[in-house]
Design goal:
74 residues; mainly alpha; 62% helix
Amino acid sequence: MSVDQIAAEALRLPPQERAILAESLWESLADPFEIAVEADDAETVALAVERDRQIETGEVQPVSHEEMMATLRR
């Protein structure tokens, strides 16, 4: 069954069941950007400053939400 077929079936569910399914799917994903719980404010700010530097210098290119979602769907 394809993702489109599964989505079509899921959309036929009542809203409460769709919410339960969505939560279940969301919780099954690992967060690739998760920061260790032990990170303190200084480390978090340093990470944000580094990410900003990477974008400003062109080391990385930001992508829109739409672009990211299209990539993930492929």
